[in-house]
Amino acid sequence: MDLKGKKGIVFGVANDRSIAWAIAKKLDENGARVGLAYQNERLKSRVEKLSTQLHDPLLIPCDASNDADLEQAFRTLKHEFGDISFVVHSIAFADKEELSGRFTDTTREGFKTALDISAFTLIPITKWATELMNGSGSIVTMTFDASHNVYPGYNVMGTAKAALEHSVRQLAYEHGPEGVRVNAISAGPLDTLAARGISGFLDMKRIHADRAPMNRNISAEEVANTALFLVSGMSSGITGAIIPVDAGFHIMAV
Ligand SMILES: NC(=O)c1ccc[n+]([C@@H]2O[C@H](COP(=O)([O-])OP(=O)(O)OC[C@H]3O[C@@H](n4cnc5c(N)ncnc54)[C@H](O)[C@@H]3O)[C@@H](O)[C@H]2O)c1
Question: Is 180 exposed, middle or buried (0-12, 13-18, 19+ CB in 10 A)?
Fold first, then answer.
């Protein structure tokens, strides 16, 4: 793929296992100029170190739960990049207590936090991003099969993914006329920081590999390849889609 001349930002790099990192590297390797948004000072030095592997990175601190941070991130992007053609939203968070035990015991605060960080943030990010997209653009977010199936332990994060996926469709509808496409990748289980917070994650991963038609788990690189496709002109007719990258697990009933 030739992404030369394309610029954009990837939200959600925490470490070298982050899906966002696999995507950032892939976009960079294919010629794009990539901005990396990281959550806070605690992650700064790690992300700085990783970014030395990219050609011409731009690092932007951004706590996506903070409106002022989001606005400032896109102001910086406008100043440094001018217009942009892609955004990758690879952000999720729920309090650890919400990711075990009964969904019935979800707290009001836990619900608000999970939905705010994991679903709502796509909306202001799309709003700011589309102002910098000049006639075409691609926005990609990350979801999981628990948006519509029950995974014990995933709890309120499944509710957040359902909200996220519906937001993808509404945003795709509203920004289609401007040439901006909005899609989600529904990835199979990958061993990341966020995933390790889900009780029973390793069982979930094993069961996916056992039952998936391809009899294996996926790799972060496979997700990154799909993100590359979605950012590139090769996917120009696709918007509002939830694309499974899960070795086929989603088609299985048992
Ligand atoms: N790992 C999996 O099995 C899997 C499967 C399907 C979907 N996903 C989704 O992929 C996305 C990335 O997760 P990951 O697995 O790479 O884990 P990760 O822990 O590497 O990434 C999660 C990122 O969210 C960021 N984040 C959390 N709160 C934030 C905030 N307030 N502001 C800005 N950033 C914030 C963290 O800093 C981190 O970089 C998430 O949406 C996750 O739900 C993961």
Answer: buried
Q: What distance in Å separates the CA atoms of residue 11 and residue 25, rounded to the nearest whole number?
A: 13
**0.85 cut: is pTM over it?**
yes
Which parts of the chain sit beneath pLDDT 70? none
Cβ(202) – ligand 1 distance below 6 Å? no
Asked whether 85 lines ligand 1 (CB < 6 A), one says no
Residue 121: the pLDDT is: 98
Q: What is the pLDDT of residue 41?
A: 94
Question: Measured in angstroms, how far is the CA atom of residue 136 from the centroid of ligand 1?
Answer: 26
Distance CA 79, CA 71 (A): 12
Which residues are identified as catalytic? 154, 161
223 lines ligand 1 (CB under 6 A): no
Query: Which CATH superfamily is 7-245 part of?
Result: NAD(P)-binding Rossmann-like Domain (3.40.50.720)
Distances 166 to 93, 162, 171, 173, 242 between C-alpha atoms, Å: 18, 6, 9, 11, 10
CA 203 to centroid of ligand 1, rounded, Å? 20
CA distance 18 to 90: 9
